[in-house]
Amino acid sequence: MGRFLLFFSCLSLLFSCSTAETSSSSKRNQGPVAHNTIVDCILYDGMSKTSKELVKLAPETEVQVTDTVDYYFMKVRVVKDGQTYNGYLHRNCFGQ
Fold first, then answer.
1. Do the beta carbons of residue 34 and residue 63 sit within 8 Å?
2. Helix (H, G, I), strand (E, B), or coil: what is residue 3?
3. How crowded is residue 87: how many other Cβ atoms within 10 Å of its Cβ?
4. What angle do CA 45, 48, 51 make, to 5 degrees?
C-alpha cells in the first residue's frame, strides 16, 4: 500500500510541475500589452533617480507594457504627439 501511495504522489507531482511550466512559458511569449495610466506619470530613460525624463503622461494615456523589469518599474512604449517613446514607468502609474 505504501508503494502504491508513493507512486501516485510522485506521478501527481510530475504532472503538476509540467503543467506549471507550460502555463508560465505561454505568458513569456506575449507581445506588448496595452494599459492606461491612472495618474500623472513621467516616462524615464532609465531606472535611477538621475535618469532623464522623456515625456510627461496624463491620466488615461495608453501605453504598451513590453516588459516587467522589477518590482518598481515596467518597460513601456508610448506614442505621444506622433512620436514613439521607449522608457520606464513606475508600477504605481497603473491600477491593480
1. yes
2. helix
3. 22
4. 35
- Nearest alpha carbon to residue 11 among 3, 75, 46: 3
Non-local CB neighbours of 83 within 8 Å, separated by 6+ positions: none
Question: Residue 76 CB: number of other CB atoms within 10 A?
Answer: 24
For the cut 50, the answer to whether the pLDDT of residue 23 exceeds it is no
Torsion of CA 28, 32, 38, 42, to 10 degrees: 100
Tally Cβ neighbours within 10 Å of residue 70.
9
49: Cα within 13 Å, side-chain hemisphere: 0
Distance (Å, whole) CA 31 – CA 26: 11
Q: Which amino acid is at 18?
A: S
Percent with pLDDT over 70 in the chain: 68
